[in-house]
């Protein structure tokens, strides 16, 4: 191989020889004509603070949650939901707190849950009584 230089290579600048020429910058576009100034209006009055929502009654939340869970817990928590629903409605009326809908939901679902479990237990005991009577009748008729 020969030790020849490529003719397409450009010589590199040596930083030790001195300052470099400034870099090329593209010419800037002519400035657009200025838009007319916006009309000045009087200052707006101060902002009005948004009304703060009343806090939600905690007993109303607990009433609704316990009534919903009470449907799956043999109606025991429905009783708590009904009691707390009545207490929270009284508190909401006197204090002006939010949560009336949740308290009513707790009451309605609590009463429905209690009634449903009572009806279910009555039906269960009727079926149990019929089954017991039929077993007793079958045992008496077999002669044992």
Distance between the termini: 120 Å
**Gross morphology:** elongated
Helix content: 40-55%
Radius of gyration: 43 Å
On the 0 to 100 scale, the average pLDDT is: 82
Tally of strands = 0
Unreliable parts: none
The helix-and-strand class reads mainly alpha
The portion of residues forming beta strands comes to: under 5%
**Major sheet description:** none
Write the H/E string, N to C.
HHH
Produce the secondary structure layout:
Blueprint (H helix, E strand, L loop, with lengths): L57 H13 L5 H20 L4 H42 L3
Helix pairs in contact: 1-2, 1-3, 2-3
Brief summary of the model shown:
By secondary structure, the protein is an all-alpha fold.
Describe the structure.
By secondary structure, the protein is mainly α. The chain has a domain at 58-139. Helices cover 52% and strands 0% of the residues. Helix 1 (58-70) runs antiparallel to helix 2, helix 1 runs parallel beside helix 3 and helix 2 packs antiparallel against helix 3.
Note the main attributes of this structure.
mainly alpha, 52% helix, elongated
């Amino acid at each position: 191989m020969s030790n020849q230089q490529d003719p397409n290579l450009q010589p590199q600048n040596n930083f030790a020889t001195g300052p470099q020429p400034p870099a090329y910058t593209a010419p800037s576009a002519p400035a657009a004509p200025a838009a007319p100034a916006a009309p000045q209006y009087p200052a707006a009055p101060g902002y009005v603070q948004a009304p703060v929502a009343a806090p939600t009654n905690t007993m109303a939340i607990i009433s609704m949650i316990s009534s919903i869970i009470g449907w799956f817990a043999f109606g025991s928590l429905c009783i708590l939901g009904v009691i707390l629903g009545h207490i929270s409605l009284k508190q909401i009326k006197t204090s002006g707190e939010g949560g009336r809908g949740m308290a009513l939901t707790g009451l309605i679902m609590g009463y429905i849950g209690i009634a449903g479990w009572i009806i279910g237990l009555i039906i269960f005991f009727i079926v149990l009584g019929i089954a017991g009577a039929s077993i007793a009748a079958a045992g008496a008729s077999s002669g044992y």
